[in-house]
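SAMPLE LOG
Freezer: B-3
Tube label: C17
Construct: single chain, 389 aa
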Amino acid sequence: MKVLGHRLELLTGLLLHDVTMAGLQELRFPEEKPLLRGQDATELEHDIETPYGLLHVVIRGSPKGNRPAILTYHDVGLNHKLCFNTFFNFEDMQEITKHFVVCHVDAPGQQVGASQFPQGYQFPSMEQLAAMLPSVVQHFGFKYVIGIGVGAGAYVLAKFALIFPDLVEGLVLVNIDPNGKGWIDWAATKLSGLTSTLPDTVLSHLFSQEELVNNTELVQSYRQQIGNVVNQANLQLFWNMYNSRRDLDINRPGTVPNAKTLRCPVMLVVGDNAPAEDGVVECNSKLDPTTTTFLKMADSGGLPQVTQPGKLTEAFKYFLQGMGYIAYLKDRRLSGGAVPSASMTRLARSRTASLTSASSVDGSRPQACTHSESSEGLGQVNHTMEVSC
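STRUCTURE (predicted):
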């Protein structure tokens, strides 16, 4: 009996040990994910009061001197995670973003776990969504931002830059459509809403026809996530408001009297045969060619930041260089290995001369100019730019 009792006691102890260890693992590690090299683990969520309601914001990293924040705004049907995680978790992109604070903005009610808006809630207009952003900038004490927007988010950031130009140093606008919906487009959208589910309707906005016909793994994944992750009632309100938008009201300088346009450097991005291709081409025709880069990406479909994060990262790096920030980053394509230093350096330059390094890292806000999207063209100002890659 003593031997049996000893065995039972030992078995009980082992079981308790296993249960305790399992509990510790469940307590400590359920959200732990491996970080890529250079990834900043500091990521904090905030709900910011604005004149038109609360905005959910996620901050990654901390402010770096006088450098601008990188502020993102996602497309309709998505949130900051679905829209930007692939891009910002790309290793080469993290070599860039570790030198900036990143501010991800979720449109009202689109974040993961968002509560459904009450009956009769009036979703902010596209102009009001743009007018909410100064509250975010002020809350965190940013002096100015570099915006990265996709689709509806690109429209919001462009509107923001038009209303508050002093707060925006540069814009990367992916899949932007500067035009409001006409009656025919409005009727087609309404009809589509009657014959298709909301996720399928949104997918036709996000992906190229070829991607939808082939029903790629990516399309299937986004169909599931749009249906399960984003609150459908809240999404419907955002979708309706985006399709009720007005023309962006921009014109190329010199084409009409008192033309309004974006004053900061702009990089327009669109994938081959993407649904937004015509809109992005038209937007390019309305912007100042001396400060605009048009990047048309082959084999990228409707979400180039998801399907081609490497190409977009390379373009973004040169875009930053053109604004006076240059990243000395490891280029994995070079047989010689990494470049010795991974640091950001401010550049001093004239409007027409080649770029030269400056001693100060956090000097005054640089003036903007636009450069070629190829390494061979660095240092040469290019006033009319259209790049395919």
